[in-house]
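Milestone 3.1: sequence recovery, worked example.
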C-alpha cells in the first residue's frame, strides 16, 4: 500500500483554508455601511430635498436613517427599512445650523459550508447531531454503524457496529458518553465508558422502533414504534415506567421531549400529534390532523424551548406551527418541495430549522414565518439536521452517506454617522440689465421669501459683487463715492449694502458705469453674502449692457439645481433585466461601463446621447454572472459610480 504524501495533504488543507478565508472576506466586504453623499461637513439646505446616498446596505433588511440637531443627544427617525441605497429627504427647518445623520443596517451573512466528510457511512446517514460543547458529532447510518466524530480532526473517535441494518437513529443521552439507539424493535443504551450495551423494550414492541428521544433533564428516554406505541423508560429502574399510544394505533414515526423535560411529544402516520405530561403521564393536548389519509404523515415533530409551540414536519413538504394552549395551527411554513425529515429549534426559540428530501435546509423566523436566510443546498436528500447549542453552526446528513458542517448565518449591526452644516437657501435672480452709459441704475437681486427663516430679525444682508468688464470701461461712481478710475484689470469687486425688503433684496446704492463706446457689456460674475454664514446662495451670471439710450429693463429667473449627476440601478438584486436611472445635468455623449468587483472591465455601452433631465435605460443583464459589479457613468464633465448585485 502506498504511503500518503504529507506535503500534498498539507497543500490541500491550505487551499481549503485560503478558500474559506476569501469567502469570509468576500461576505464581509459588502456588510459595512458608509455614507457617500453628502460628505463630512457638507452643506444641507433647509426646506429643500437632499439626496442621501450610501453603499453596502443590507439587501435583506435595508437601512434606517436618523438625524439629530442636538449633537447626538437624541435621534429622530427619518425613514425605516430603506431597500435602496439612497433616500430623498425633505430637510425640515432647524433652529440650529449643526446636523448629524446616522445610518443603521442590520446585515445578515449567508450560511457557508465549513467542511464535509464524504462517505462518512457506507449507506445513508439517518441521524446526525452535535454535542452540547460543539466538539463532537454523533451519526447513525443504514450500514448499522453508530459513529462519534471529532469536529476538529473530522475523524471518528468511537463507533459501534450493530448486527443488522435496522439502526434507525442514535441520540445523545446526558452527554456523548451514553448513547440511545433506535434498533430493530427495541432501544439500546450504549455506555461508551464501560463499553457495554443494554437493551430496553424487548418484547414490548410488535414492530420496528423508528425513533428515540432522550430527556435531557431527567434519567428518562422514550422509544416510538410503528405498532402505535410509545414507551417511556427509566434508566435508573432499567425498565418501562409508562406507555402511550395513538388513538387509531397508527404508526408512530417520531417522538421528542421539551427542553425542560416536562413534556413528551409524538406524532403519527395519520398526522395526529400528542403531548403528554411526563410526571403525571396525562394527555395535555392532542393536535388532530386535517387529513388522516397519510398525506399529512408527520415525519418529525418538536416542542419550542418555551413550550408554547409544536412544530411538525410532514410528507407534504409543509412545516406546521401549532399553539400549545389552543391546539390550532398558527402558521404554515412553505418553501420545501419534498418531505420534511428533520426539524430543530434554535436555542433562543426565535428560529426553526428544517431539512427536506428536496435536498435543502431552510430557516424561518417563528414570529412571522418569513425566511431567516437563504436556503442551504445540502446537495442530496436530507434525512437529518440540527443546530449547535449556540446556533452558529448546523450539521446535516442524508442519502449519500456524507455529513456536512455549516457556518450559520449571522446578523451584524453596522452604522455610520455624519456631521453636516445646515444653511438657509437663498435663491436669487441675477438680472440682465440694459442701461444708458453714465446713468445711475439699481441692481436688484430678487430672492425667494425669507419668512420661514428661524431668525427673521436679521434684516441686513451685505453682498459682494464681482464684475468682469472690458478695457474700454472708464470708471464707475455711486451715490456715495465720487468718480473712481478703474484699475487696468479685467475684474472689479464692489461691496453692496442690501436690506431684505419683503421678498426682494435691493441694493441701497445706485451705480453709474461709464464707457468709452456704446454696447459695452459688463458681466456679473459672482456675488456672496459677506456678513452671515447662515445662508447658501444659488446664483448664475448676469450682465450689464451699456448703450447710448436705455433699451429697457429685463430680468430673468435663475435657478441652479441643487442636485448633482445621479445614478441608480434596480432591482437589487437583479436577475435578468436591469433598469438604470440617471439624472443628467448636461447634454451630450454619455457612456456606461461595467466592471467586476475586482476592477476588471466587463462591458461598455457608448454613444448614449441624452438631453438634460431624468432618463431610464434598461439592459439585459444575462451577460453578467452572479456577483457584485460596478457601474460607471461617464458624463461629458463628471463620473458617477453605482454598485449592483446580480444573481442567477
Amino acid at each position: 500500500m502506498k504511503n500518503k504524501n504529507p506535503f500534498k495533504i498539507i497543500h490541500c488543507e491550505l487551499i481549503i483554508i485560503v478558500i474559506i478565508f476569501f469567502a469570509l472576506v468576500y461576505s464581509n466586504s459588502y456588510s459595512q455601511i458608509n455614507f457617500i453623499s453628502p460628505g463630512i461637513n457638507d452643506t444641507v439646505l433647509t426646506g429643500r430635498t437632499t439626496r442621501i446616498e450610501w453603499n453596502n446596505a443590507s439587501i435583506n433588511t435595508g437601512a434606517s436613517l436618523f438625524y439629530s440637531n442636538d449633537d447626538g443627544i437624541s435621534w429622530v427617525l427619518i425613514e425605516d427599512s430603506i431597500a435602496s441605497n439612497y433616500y430623498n429627504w425633505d430637510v425640515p427647518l432647524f433652529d440650529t445650523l449643526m446636523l448629524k445623520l446616522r445610518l443603521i443596517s442590520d446585515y445578515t451573512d449567508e450560511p457557508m459550508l465549513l467542511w464535509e466528510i464524504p462517505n462518512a457511512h457506507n449507506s445513508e446517514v439517518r441521524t446526525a447531531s452535535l454535542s452540547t460543547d460543539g466538539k463532537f458529532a454523533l451519526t447513525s447510518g443504514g450500514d448499522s454503524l453508530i459513529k462519534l466524530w471529532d469536529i476538529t480532526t473530522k475523524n471518528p473517535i468511537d463507533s459501534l457496529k450493530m448486527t443488522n441494518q435496522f439502526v434507525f437513529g442514535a441520540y445523545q443521552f446526558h452527554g456523548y458518553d451514553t448513547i440511545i439507539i433506535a434498533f430493530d424493535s427495541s432501544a439500546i443504551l450504549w455506555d461508551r465508558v464501560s463499553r457495554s450495551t443494554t437493551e430496553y423494550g424487548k418484547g414490548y414492541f410488535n414492530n420496528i422502533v423508528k425513533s428515540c428521544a432522550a430527556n435531557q433533564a431527567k434519567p428518562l428516554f422514550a422509544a416510538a414504534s410503528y405498532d402505535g406505541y410509545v414507551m417511556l423508560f427509566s434508566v435508573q429502574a432499567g425498565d418501562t415506567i409508562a406507555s402511550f399510544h395513538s388513538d387509531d394505533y397508527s404508526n408512530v414515526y417520531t417522538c421528542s421531549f421539551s427542553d425542560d423535560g416536562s413534556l413528551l411529544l409524538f406524532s403519527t402516520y395519520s398526522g395526529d400529534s400528542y403531548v403528554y405530561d411526563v410526571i403525571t403521564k396525562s394527555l395535555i393536548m392532542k393536535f388532530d390532523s386535517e387529513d388522516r389519509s397519510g398525506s399529512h404523515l408527520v415525519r418529525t415533530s418538536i416542542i419550542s424551548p418555551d413550550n408554547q409551540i409544536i412544530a411538525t414536519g410532514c410528507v407534504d413538504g409543509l412545516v406546521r406551527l401549532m399553539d400549545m394552549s389552543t391546539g390550532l395551527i398558527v402558521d404554515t411554513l412553505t418553501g420545501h418541495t419534498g418531505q420534511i425529515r428533520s426539524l430543530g429549534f434554535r436555542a433562543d426559540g426565535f428560529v426553526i430549522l428544517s431539512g427536506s428530501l428536496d435536498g435543502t435546509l431552510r430557516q424561518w423566523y417563528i414570529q412571522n414565518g418569513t425566511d431567516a436566510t437563504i436556503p442551504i443546498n445540502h446537495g442530496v436528500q436530507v434525512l437529518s439536521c440540527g443546530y449547535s447549542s449556540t446556533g452558529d453552526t448546523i450539521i446535516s446528513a442524508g442519502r449519500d452517506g456524507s455529513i456536512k458542517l455549516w457556518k450559520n448565518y449571522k446578523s451584524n449591526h453596522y452604522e455610520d454617522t455624519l456631521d453636516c452644516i445646515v444653511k438657509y437657501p437663498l435663491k436669487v435672480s441675477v438680472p440682465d440689465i440694459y442701461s444708458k452709459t453714465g446713468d445711475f441704475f439699481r441692481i436688484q437681486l430678487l430672492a425667494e421669501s425669507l419668512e420661514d427663516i428661524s431668525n427673521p430679525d436679521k434684516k441686513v444682508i451685505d453682498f459682494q459683487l464681482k464684475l468682469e468688464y472690458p478695457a474700454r470701461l472708464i470708471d464707475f461712481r455711486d451715490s456715495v463715492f465720487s468718480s473712481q478710475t478703474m484699475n487696468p484689470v479685467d475684474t472689479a469687486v464692489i461691496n453692496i449694502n442690501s436690506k431684505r425688503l419683503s421678498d426682494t433684496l435691493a441694493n441701497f446704492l445706485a451705480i453709474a458705469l461709464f464707457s468709452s463706446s456704446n454696447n459695452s457689456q459688463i458681466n456679473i460674475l459672482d456675488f456672496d453674502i459677506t456678513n452671515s454664514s447662515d445662508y447658501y446662495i444659488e446664483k448664475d451670471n448676469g450682465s450689464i449692457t451699456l448703450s447710448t439710450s436705455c433699451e429697457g429693463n429685463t430680468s430673468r429667473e435663475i435657478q441652479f439645481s441643487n442636485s448633482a449627476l445621479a445614478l441608480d440601478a434596480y432591482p437589487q438584486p437583479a436577475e435578468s433585466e436591469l433598469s438604470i436611472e440617471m439624472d443628467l445635468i448636461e447634454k451630450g455623449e454619455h457612456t456606461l461601463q461595467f466592471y467586476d468587483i475586482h476592477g476588471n472591465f466587463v462591458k461598455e455601452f457608448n454613444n448614449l446621447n441624452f438631453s438634460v433631465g431624468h432618463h431610464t435605460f434598461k439592459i439585459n443583464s444575462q451577460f453578467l454572472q452572479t456577483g457584485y459589479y460596478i457601474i460607471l457613468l461617464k458624463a461629458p464633465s463628471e463620473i458617477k459610480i453605482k454598485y449592483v448585485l446580480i444573481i442567477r
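The chain is about 5% helix and 55% strand. The chain has a mean pLDDT of 79.
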